[in-house]
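Mods, move this if it's the wrong board.
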Amino acid sequence: MNAPLRSTTLARQASPFDLDDEASYRRWRDAKLAARPAGIDDLLVDIADPLALTVAEREALLQRLSRANMALYRGPARACDRDVVTGLGRQLGLCQLDGHWLAEEDGVSRIAVSAQSDGRGGYIPYTDNPIRWHTDGYYQGTERRIRGMVLHCVRPACEGGVNGLMDHELAYIALRDASPDHVRALMAPDAMTIPERRDDDGVARAATTGPVFSVDTADGALHMRYTARTRSIQWKDDAATRAAVDCLQAILSSESPQVLHVRMEAGMGLVSHNVLHDRSAFHDDSRQPRLLYRARYLDRSAAPELPWR
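Not the wrong board. Structure tokens:
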């Protein structure tokens, strides 16, 4: 597998994601673990105006994205924050919106409890039920990989709605340290299949088969495609894949300090390179129900590469 390098020429020379290149992996691993945040506070950046970041605020967010593939921001709560999502994303280099079928015309999704009759009802992000560990767009093919995301909180729930977060590169390290065979199994091109989705008109989305871990050929960034759901997913039926999936699930359910938790308040948001995340169940106030806006991107932010060579 190719290294997370901007140059394809350099990528052929050294690769921390090549299971046969242990020296490069160790150098990258040491740099990654040295830079990892100790807790949620290390990810948080206070900003005065999300639509007009100062140079220092932008650099602080990009530095955290470089270290941890995610950053949290805390800004002023406003009556309508829809424009914050794409405005903030553009300032950080996120431009290629994923206009999926549940998003609005501007590519932004309104995340709130929805009725069955509005098209969103029944899909778990639009309920108050817990959401298991996943990366966004895990059901999409390689041509529509979700590489970036902005999630902005307008109103939190009155109780619950806590997000778990884990840098997918740390998950890779934990799996490879446990056994390189786990990584090898999850890099297989047929490791995970999401069956087709059908509606009244027939096949609305074709089945997609692909790896859990892959590396983008354009910039060498590590990408992860995963869901902990047990329905609407088919894992490759062999012992190596089952062992790798069991190990990953154990990592995500552990009390590891690398698994972070945050309950976002009004004006807070998450920018990420589509890291692993979950959400606890919540209870709404019917007068002020929970509301978040989300934009998903096909590109990554302008965060600099973490030095490791």
